[in-house]
Amino acid sequence: MTTPEFAAQVARVATERAAAWDALLDTLTAPAPDVVERLRSGELAETWRAGVRWLGQDSDMFTAALLTLDVYARGADRRSPDDDLAVLVAGRTAVVEPVAARLEDARAVAALCRDEADAWSRGDVTAGKDLRAQQHAFVEEHLLETLPELGARLVRESPGGVVRAIGQLLLAFLTAETGKDYQRAVLGAPGVVEPGIVKPGGSADPNGLLRR
Q1: Inter-axis angle of helices 33-41 and 4-29, to 10 degrees?
Q2: DSSP per-residue letters across the chain
């Protein structure tokens, strides 16, 4: 039986995952002054930390990129917002624009996360589980053709460390959603995490409701 406390916990996790996906896509699809300010203040790094803490120790795959963003935020006073925006725009122009439509499609993942949170908040366990499965299916069916290569190109070709860190985050999110180690694959050593990213008891999902 699913307790109200556990349902509330899963709803919180789904809400945080939605915010993390939205933040990632905001930095990639349309970098704007407000997005730059959220990066410079450290707000987005904290949003991403919250969005992956359900992974427990497996959230370590996000650590290097988030530490890079922490350093970026601490040094913001030494750079102008306009210069930081120019770096983001340059990274997008060079790498992201060819797959911009697919990134907009990825907004569906965040929307499904919010729907999942709503279902768990209502106590609708069946709908919550089904919406989590829909997220996994959407990533597998619509995003894996282009986003792993996008993440690889961001890491390898981007002009600034912050854009490379965002590429690392994209690969880590895809790893968390699929169980396939896209970060390691980009480094030339393909791997698969078995039986999934999260081990029983190792996260905010002890009953396996978030794992697919």
Answers
A1: 120
A2: ---HHHHHHHHHHHHHHHHHHHHHHHHHH---HHHHHHHHHTHHHHHHHHHHGGGGGGGGGGHHHHHHHHHHHHTGGGS-HHHHHHHHHHHIIIIIGGGHHHHHHTHHHHHHHHHHHHHHHTT-HHHHHHHHHHHHHHIIIIITTTHHHHHHHHHHH-SSHHHHHHHHHHHHHHHHHHSEEHHHHHTT--EE-SS-SSPTTSSS-TTSTT--
User: Which of 107-111, 146-150, 187-191, 195-199 shows the highest mean pLDDT?
Assistant: 107-111
pTM to 2 decimal places = 0.86
Kindly list the distances between the CA atom of residue 31 and the CA atoms of 12, 26, 191, in Å, as whole numbers in the listed order: 27, 7, 32
Q: What is the pLDDT of residues 134-171, one digit of tens each?
A: 999 999 999 998 999 999 989 888 777 899 999 999 99
Looking at residue 95, what is its pLDDT? 83
* Tokens of residue 61, six digits: 């795959």
Yes or no: say if 147 and 183 are a contact pair by the CB < 8 Å rule.
no
